[in-house]
Amino acid sequence: MTDWLTLHVVSLVFIAAVFGGMIFFMAVFAPSVFRFLPRDVAAPFMRSLFPVYFLVLGIVCLIPSGVLFTVASYRPEAIAMLAVAILFFLQRGVLLPILNRSREAGRDRRASALHRLSVIVHLGQWVVVAVTLVRLSA
């Protein structure tokens, strides 16, 4: 009856959740916050939300990584999801605090560069998640 419920399917569900969550956050949620809230409210709100976002997605990435590591043929995908998880944790624990301190100190040029870096890393993570999802779906 549950022949379809395999570790492969469980991994696909979690990876699809990360993929969809990232798209929703990038394309709908973040732009909407800045569209509908005053900037002086939106910016602190987003700064308080990002640590939670990175933590949750990092944890969700660890689940399929751990599951996929159990099957040798899925090791590349497991490593890819582990790398994405590690990047989420690094963004949360290293990049965000530096970025926030730069903003608070009025170092706008540095804060802008760090923000650009975080966006590039996030887009790179999204590409890795997308490729992993496609590879496992094939």
Q: Topology of this structure?
A:
Layout lengths: L6 H30 L2 H31 L5 H30 L3 H30 L1
Give a verbal description of the structure:
It is a single chain. It contains 4 helices and no strands. It has about 140 residues and is mostly helical. It has one domain. Helix 1 runs antiparallel to helix 2, helix 1 runs antiparallel to helix 4 and helix 2 runs antiparallel to helix 3. The radius of gyration is 17 Å and the shape is elongated. The two termini are about 25 Å apart.
Total number of domains: 1
Q: Give the DSSP E fraction (strand runs of 2 or more residues).
A: under 5%
Distance N to C terminus: 23 Å
Described by strand count, sense and barrel closure, the largest sheet is: none
Low-confidence stretches: none
Give, in order, the helices and strands.
Answer: HHHH
**Rounded Rg:** 17 Å
Net shape: elongated
Helix content: over 70%
Number of separate helices: 4
Q: Got a strand count?
A: 0
Structural class: mainly alpha
| Rounded average pLDDT | 94
Task: Please give a quick description of this structure.
The protein has 138 residues and is mainly α. Helices cover 88% and strands 0% of the residues.
Supply the key terms:
single chain; 138 residues; mainly alpha; 0% strand; elongated
